[in-house]
Structures are given as structure tokens and as C-alpha cells.
Amino acid sequence: MAVGATAALLAAALPTPAPASAARPTPVPAPGIAWQPCEKDRTAECGTMSLPVDWERPDGDRFTLHLARRAATDPAARIGSLVFGPGGPGDSGVDRIIKNDRFSDELRRRFDIVSFDPRGIGRSNPVRCSAELLGRQPQVITDQARFDAALKDNALLRADCRARTGPLYDHVDTRSAVRDVDAVRAALGESRLTFHGSSYGTLLGAQYAEEFPGRIRAMVLESVVDHSLGTRAFLDTQAATAQDSFDEFVAWCVRTPSCALHGEDVRAVWAGLLARAEQGELVDPDRPGVALTPYDLSRFAQRRLYGPDWPGLVRRIVALRAEPTAAAGPGAADDQGGEETVAPYPFAVFCADWHLPVRDHREYAAHLRRMARIAPDVRYPQALPAIATCLGTPAPVANPQHRLRVRTDVPLLLANSRHDPASGHNWATNVSRQLGRSGVLLTYEGWGHGNYTRSPCMGEAIDRYLISVDVPVDGSSCPAVAEPGA
Q1: How far apart, in whole angstroms, are the C-alpha atoms of residue 74 and residue 71?
Q2: Cβ-based neighbours of 434, under 8 Å, separated by 6 or more
Q3: Distance of alpha carbon 244 from its chain centroid, rounded?
Q4: 176, 167 in Cβ contact below 8 A?
Q5: Between vectors from CA 428 to CA 119 and to CA 346, what angle results, nearest 5°?
Q6: Tens digit of pLDDT for each residue in 1-25?
Q7: Closest CA to 459 of 442, 474, 439
Q8: Can you give 68-101 as a three-state secondary structure string?
Q9: Are the beta carbons of 127 and 165 closer than 8 angstroms?
Q10: Residue 333 backbone class (left: φ over 0; alpha: ψ -120 to 50; beta: rest)
Q11: Residue among 263, 107, 135 at smallest CA distance from 196
């Protein structure tokens, strides 16, 4: 979900409240998982577990957690099970196992690779809501009337999602998912957990370490999420890391003759597109007749920075610049034929994990102005729609932010790209400080969201840690490999 923030931003975390549950929870004994071949790929196994909706009421309502695994390819060398925590929020761990492209041959040889669809996501009792209400969520809130409308619509959406989803809607937070993971560990017959979490899955891993520090064999947190930040620090760190990745794109274009804008002022060209979008003079090439807003431009750039796909980004910039100036309309609403449509809403977990209040439009606009100073090229970081989506969520949320309190026998391995447009190196360094001796940070000195598969150095270091619990030196790094588009 951010790189190059200053030390002041990193220090702008919330005070340190005690974790929501002071006592270490005792897991409910979990039944075994009945595995059978997956329908989509019979070389993988799929299974289910029945788990409590509310872990504080283990005899109450239950939901079905869906899992998948691939058995170790060399049973004689098998170490145990490696549990993968999917990101997003909203990614399917079941689909990831079926796709079978996440881990090295050596890890697949030594471990059963297991993952799951987290509660409220994918196959595991997904949060479902009115598509019409989901469609009302604003890109950018422009005045107090729209701010008030967003509060009203968000309240309607919460009530609608709760009615359609059932009891699980109020228990999709990551702290509840931590208990699910421990039930999975027990059902797999593992006395200690071997875990690799990616992006939002790092929050799941970090909070597992907080709840069950004595049950960790090895844990990798790749592309780290910092769950200690209040509204301002959350927005500012995201803005800083998005701008850092855009700066890297510009620098690549300046030094790379094959860049279609090489020799030109890339920022000036980009500013011209933003200005035309502000006037409604750009048409979305993917939606004929629909205006391309500055928000749309910003989000498109950020998506291309994930890879990163610098050549794809520059091609789009050149194509948009070449378009004649034309007035575009807002686009026609989808014709639903009078029938009510329902859509999954995996982002509900975010509003259960974060309390990011904004009082009114005046405060919201101040955030926008400050982020525009931090990120003049990327004015609308991903944090902005997250703030709007969760406006009005009643406090306290189920899993509020706090600084981690983790004391483990084996240090957690944090792995982060230096230039990650979503989970910035600023977040990784802040989480590393929170973990102290219970964490070590390994940096990939390159670009993009995710790093395990980006270089042999990163892959080998992470594999060595997971297989042998050989912990890298804290603060060590792997050099960047070939530049994107080189």
C-alpha cells in the first residue's frame, strides 16, 4: 500500500497503547483439514476448516475458511509446512497456490506450501455489498456537501454489507485472522509456524508474532506494512513513497535513450497532462467518451510503478499527449436492467484495521494540499481512497493501530525494495525499529512492489532463512538487477 519519507514522518506514529488483548489467547483446538484435489488443478489440494466468527465466542457462529496446498516435492527432504499470507487486502491465497508461481523450486522441494483465502475474502465467507452503493465511493471529495454525502453513503454501505454478509462482517479484522492462522498451524500439525507474508499479509504476520511469539519457527515479511501510523503520517508516508517511485521513473527516462521522452522535460509533459485532465480535456483510452481525471492519471501511474513498467508508463504519456483536445463526458451509468447487483468488497478489512479520522472537508483539503507538496507529480496516493472509504467508521475499530510489541526467539526477516511505490522502505525501517532485536531488515536496492523474485540475491537469502533459519545481518542489502526496460 510507500519510499523516501523523512525521519520526521517515520517518527510520526501513534502513541503506544497496549495491544487489544493483554493476555495471550489460547487457540481453540482445530480439527484436521480434509484435503482433496482442487477442481481447477488436481495437482494441488484444496480443503476447508470450520472456525469461529468471533474468537471470543468460540461456541457461537462459525464460517468456513478455504485453503489450498501443494505437497513438498521431495518427501525425504521435507521440513514442514510453509504458510503464505496473501496481500491486498483482497488477494486469494487459494488462487496463488493453484497458480504455483510464488516460491522457488527449492522451497517447493522442502515445504508443503499452504495458503488460504482470509476471512471475508474470496471463498471464505466474502463480504458482499450493493454494487450501487460501492459505486458511490468518491475519488476526491471536493467540498463539504460531498464530504457529508460520503459519510452518509458509507453508513448505508456498512449497514448493507452487514445485512448481506452476516455475522462475519463485524469480525474481518486482522487480529481475528491471526487466530485463524494459528488454528491452521495446529491443524497442519506444526508446533511452530513457518510463514511468508506479502504486502498486507505482513500485517497478519507481524500481529501473529505479537500474539504468539513462542510459536514462530521463521517468518518473512515482504513489502512491509506499518500499522502504527495516524491519519497524517499514513497519508504523508504514502505520498512520499509514491513520489519517490515517480522520481525514479523520471531519472530512468533522463538517462535512457530508448525512453520515448528522452531529452524532454518529463515532468513538464506530465504536468501538462494533469492540467488538461483538470479541464476535462482528456479522454480515457480504455473507456471511450469518459473523461480522464487527474486522479485517474495518478492511479494509472502508480499501477505502472508497481512492476515497475516504466516503458508502459511512458508509452501512455506519449499517447495521451498526442490526443487532440476534446471535451469528454462523465460516462453513462451501467444499465443494470432494474436488477439489484451485489459485489464482493474485500477492502472491508482495512476499515476494521485502521482508525484514520478526518473531521470535515476543511481538514481533508488540508491533507490534499500537504500531499501535493510532498508528491507534486503523484497528487493522489493510494492512501487517499482508503481514507474516503473508511470515513465515519465507528471508533474504536476492531484492530486499531499501535506500535508492535514483539519479542521472539528467532528474528523476523523484513524484506523491502528501496523504491517500492506502495509498501515503502520508510514503513520497513519504522517497523524494524519497533521490532528491535526481534527483526532484521534486508533491502533490495531496486524498484517495485515485492522483491523475493526480483534478484537471485534476495531469493537465495530468503530461502536460506526459511530453510535453515540462517538470519541475514540486519541492514544488509542486495544490489538492483537490470533496470526495467533496459
Answers
A1: 9
A2: 228, 403, 404, 406
A3: 18
A4: no
A5: 20
A6: 543 333 332 233 333 333 333 343 3
A7: 442
A8: EEECCCCHHHCCEEEEEECCCCCCCHHHHHHHCC
A9: yes
A10: beta
A11: 107
Confidence band for 89, pLDDT divided at 50, 70 and 90: very high
pLDDT tens by residue, 51-60 = 999 999 999 9
Look up the pTM and report it.
Answer: 0.90
- Please name the amino acid found at residue 2: A
Digit-coded pLDDT (tens) for 243-299: 999 999 999 999 999 999 999 999 999 999 999 999 999 988 888 888 899 999 999
Distances (CA, A) of 98 to 84, 94, 234, 255, 355: 13, 6, 34, 40, 35
**In contact, 291 and 328? CB cutoff 8 Å:** yes
In contact, 228 and 404? CB cutoff 8 Å: yes
3 state DSSP class of 293 = coil
List, as one string, the DSSP characters of 197-209: EETHHHHHHHHHH
Write out the DSSP string of 400-421. Answer: ---------SS-EEEEEEEE-S
Residue with cell 527432504: 77
Residue matched to cell numbers 525512453: 259
CA proximity to 153, closest of 477, 484, 433, 391: 391
Cell (9 digits) for 402 = 499501535
C-alpha cell at 158: 456498512
H helices within 256-293, ranges in order?
266-278
And the C-alpha cell for 342? Answer: 451485489
Task: Say if residues 117 and 94 touch (Cβ distance below 8 Å).
Answer: yes
Q: What is the DSSP letter of 16?
A: -
The three three-digit cell numbers of residue 82, written as one number? 510453509
Backbone angles phi, psi at 454, to 5 degrees: -85, -20
Reply yes or no on whether the pLDDT at 136 is more than 60: yes
Of 227, 228, 223, 215, give the one whose Cα is nearest residue 83. 215
444 close to 480: Cβ distance less than 8 angstroms: yes
Q: How confident is the model at residue 31 (pLDDT cuts 50, 70, 90)?
A: low
Confidence band for 339, pLDDT divided at 50, 70 and 90: low
In 193-284, which ranges are continuous DSSP H helix?
A: 200-211, 231-255, 266-278
Q: What percent of the chain has pLDDT over 90?
A: 84
Strands (DSSP E) contained in 124-183 are 128-130
